Amino acid sequence: MLPIKVATKLSTDISTESDSPRRYFITGSFDPQVLARKLSPKLQLQIPDLSAEKVQSADTFDNQLLKSGQELFVAESGEQFWLFEKGRLKLQGDDKIALPGLIMELPDSLSAQLQADEIRALLPQHPAKIGCRKMALLDDQKKTVARINHWQLSGNDKTLHWVEASPVRGYVKSFARLQEALAAIGLQSNATMPERLLPSLRLKVSLYSAKPDFKIADNEPAQHLARRLCSGMLSIARLNEPGTIKDLDSEFLHDYRVSLRRVRSVVALFSKVFNEQDSQRMKAELADLMRRTNRLRDLDVYLLEKESYFKLLPKHLHSGLEKMFRDFTRERGNQQRKTAKWLASDDYKQAILSVEKFFSQQPLSNAPNAATPALGLAKSSIWKRYRKVCAIAKEITPETPDEQVHDLRIQCKKLRYLMEFFSPLFPKKVIKKQIRALKGLQDNLGRFNDFSVQQESLHDYLKRKMERGNLDLDVADSIGALRLVLNQQQRQERDRVMACFARFHSPEIHQSFETCFDHKRNA
């Protein structure tokens, strides 16, 4: 049995008979023999050998664990793990873990503790070593009066040490002498971790963000800003290509598509910043790039929603759903292979490079708003889109056709994109409050649209099965019942549209938009 496991077991025993351990962090090295020499002659420190286990740090592609103050290490064998939170060992186990692997597929004891999206994959990040030396402090009667754990984490030729000292009840004076000895060698009790583990080992940490912050100057020319934003978002899309090709988790494709969609939105929403010919060409090229991955993303969404679909129907209708999801799983495998082949192809590389080149080069031609200062463009664009959202929403009644509700969703999405693009130009608290209010309406409209799209897609699935002559009766029954439930939920969301808009269009929020963005009023 490895020393690490022994240490964890003994630490568990301590919790039943002793107070919480005192923790000491050390910026240099730690030699237990030096501590032993500082102790009273009546106290003896038992010092076993320290054995280190080869491990690798694990995190999501966008470092969700590290950003939340967590560090996870997995043994090379994949049969042990150690989870630290803010410098403290929070959980250790001997469950088998394969990297890369989805968080939702990890042992429940571990996945429940991780501060990360469960549909993200944990990826191997950096090699390291971790070990623990379990020491006991004995008195002259050979009784254990305190316990000391010496932890050691090594990586990149640097080692971080920390010591946990736990008193045994009934031996207060002996523990006080131990504390004096620890202080004598320069350790301070109840110290906090001076820095997170990975940075302290000088390991490279990704600063990836699906929505990076862009600094914008009030007077930055609009075309220059548009090109800069698009180049930055294209780089985010490209960072997600390897994970999409390897099929590590569905979020790589999701982030890839969101980045391309945001680029296309800049071209479409930054009115007359590019000339018409360039705008149409870029929108067409970006639309073609996204079209190649549409079906794979649709299937990802269905498979992620699988559990919720089963909850919507009684058990006697589950067999049809099982067959449908088996079809989706097979189709997804085929679509994934096609997508991976496309992203690795020369045709794709030429297409994406063509788009990158357009946004990275100097302006090719003039456009009416090319030199417009960013702040002026932001105010006019956001105010115009806000007024359009309000005009459509005010016309919605219980009898309004669904198409008009869909149009409202699209206009809200465009307004949200504009506000996010230009948010650095406005007071942070104000813009956050406005976006939060808009998000409530968007969530409602998004659910309405999702239910509509899902019904249509299920209808298409049934139609294809019928045309091929392989439609089972239980599949037809299950999908028919599911479409009815989804239709009911869509109607419920539609009934909430007016209430959600009323919250978004409150006097306070309206005044806020008018004050920030009505450039004519504030001229």
Task: Describe the structure in brief.
The chain is built from 19 helices and 10 strands. The protein has helices spanning 3-14, 32-38, 64-67, 108-111, 172-184, 197-200, 222-239, 241-246, 250-269, 276-291, 294-304, 306-312, 318-343, 346-360, 374-394, 402-422, 428-468, 473-504, 507-517; strands at 22-26, 44-46, 52-59, 70-75, 81-85, 88-93, 101-102, 121-138, 144-155, 158-167.
* The CATH H-level homologous superfamily of the largest domain: CHAD domain
CATH architecture of the largest domain: Alpha solenoid
Q: Which descriptor suits the 3D outline? A: globular
CATH top level assignment of the largest domain: Mainly Alpha
Q: What integer value in Å does the Rg equal?
A: 30 Å
| Major sheet attributes | 10 strands, antiparallel
Order of helices and strands: HEHEEHEEEEHEEEHHHHHHHHHHHHHHH
Put simply, the count of helices is 19
* Helical/strand content category: alpha+beta
CATH topology of the largest domain: CHAD domain
Count of folded domains: 2
Keywords:
10 strands; globular; about 525 residues; 19 helices; CHAD domain; ten-stranded antiparallel β-sheet
Give an account of the 3D structure.
This protein has 19 helices and ten strands. Strand 8 and strand 9 form a beta hairpin. Helix content is 55%, strand content 14%. It has helices spanning 3-14, 32-38, 64-67, 108-111, 172-184, 197-200, 222-239, 241-246, 250-269, 276-291, 294-304, 306-312, 318-343, 346-360, 374-394, 402-422, 428-468, 473-504, 507-517, and strands at 22-26, 44-46, 52-59, 70-75, 81-85, 88-93, 101-102, 121-138, 144-155, 158-167. Strands 1, 2, 3, 4, 5, 6, 7, 8, 9 and 10 form a ten-stranded antiparallel sheet that branches. It has two domains: 19-193, Hypothetical Protein Pfu-838710-001; 222-522, Alpha solenoid (CHAD domain), CATH 1.40.20.10. It has 523 residues and is α+β, with helices and mostly antiparallel strands. Helix 13 (318-343) crosses helix 18, helix 15 (374-394) runs antiparallel to helix 19 (507-517) and helix 16 crosses helix 17. The N and C termini lie far apart (75 Å).
